[in-house]
């Protein structure tokens, strides 16, 4: 049993419509080289997850993600400094993040936001860095990718105070129906990870049901948050296909409808080339 827990889940059957894994960490999944990236995305494509956005949380991963997005046409990147790493966030770090975020293959500024679960960075430092990333997203005219952990009220307040960018994505949305309504009303996009498949996530289930078809995405946050029934095992981008099917069941919709919705929204928000075939 212990050995099984360390193994990847099986690659699921291919979705009827190809989707985008809106948030993953290919480096944390173990990818180092271009060949590693290609192998991972090949597995994902077999499940109908044809494109991925690999996300950075510090400068080293930002440099890697930006380069990895040039290795394979199916890979894009997002860069920022994670809120838990903002204790020391000076001009040198800001300059490097801005340089990387401006690259053509970088489609979002993130993940940034607030994390009050961990105490690695003071709240004031996180909030200052969050405001800076909001401004960067607006200056670059790129989507803002939010990390929000036990900080809903402050995240929403700061977004309002700073006049949020045109596109805001709540990565691994963790709120309930009330929080979802506030985000939807503000025009934000909710990105659902494997957590929405967990049986005890009742509030998240309600949030997923009420979200309009053009305001949600699917992500893995791999190697974390592996969908049910493989919770606790390693995750990879192909896991998004499990979440798509679970969302379809939650929403009472056909799998192809949900897949088409998340593909279309990802293409619009990230400004990806349109893919009309499965």
From TrEMBL:
Record protein name field: TatD DNase family protein
PANTHER family named in the record: D-AMINOACYL-TRNA DEACYLASE (PTHR46124:SF2)
Molecular function terms, GO-annotated: DNA nuclease activity; hydrolase activity, acting on ester bonds; metal ion binding
Protein species of origin: Amycolatopsis pretoriensis
GO cellular component labels: cytosol
Key words, A-Z: Hydrolase, Metal-binding
Top-rank taxon: Bacteria
Coiled coil: none
UniProt binding sites for a divalent metal cation 1: 23, 25, 111, 221
Residue numbers binding a divalent metal cation 2: 147, 171
NCBIfam families in the record: YchF/TatD family DNA exonuclease (TIGR00010)
């Amino acid at each position: 049993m212990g050995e099984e827990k360390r193994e990847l889940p099986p690659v699921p059957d291919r979705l009827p419509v190809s989707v985008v894994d809106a948030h993953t960490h290919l480096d944390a999944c173990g990818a180092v080289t271009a060949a590693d990236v290609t192998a991972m995305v090949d597995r994902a494509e077999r499940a109908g997850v044809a494109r991925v956005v690999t996300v950075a949380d510090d400068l080293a991963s930002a440099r890697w993600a930006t380069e990895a997005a040039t290795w394979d046409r199916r890979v894009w990147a997002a860069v920022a400094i994670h809120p838990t790493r903002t204790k020391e966030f000076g001009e040198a770090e800001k300059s490097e993040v801005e340089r990387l975020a401006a690259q053509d293959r970088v489609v979002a500024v993130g993940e940034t936001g607030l994390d009050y679960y961990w105490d690695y960075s003071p709240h004031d430092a996180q909030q200052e860095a969050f405001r800076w990333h909001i401004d960067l997203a607006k200056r670059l005219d790129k989507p803002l990718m939010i990390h929000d952990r036990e900080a809903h009220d402050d995240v929403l307040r700061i977004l309002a105070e700073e006049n949020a960018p045109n596109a805001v994505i709540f990565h691994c949305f963790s709120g309930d129906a009330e929080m979802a309504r506030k985000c939807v009303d503000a025009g934000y996009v909710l990105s659902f990870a494997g957590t929405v498949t967990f049986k005890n996530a009742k509030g998240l289930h309600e949030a997923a049901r009420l979200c309009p078809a053009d305001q949600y995405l699917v992500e893995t946050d791999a190697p974390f948050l592996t969908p049910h029934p493989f919770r606790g095992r390693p995750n990879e981008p192909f896991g998004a296909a499990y979440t798509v099917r679970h969302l379809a069941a939650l929403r009472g919709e056909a799998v192809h409808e949900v897949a088409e919705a998340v593909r279309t929204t990802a293409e619009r928000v990230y400004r990806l080339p349109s893919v009309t075939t499965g």
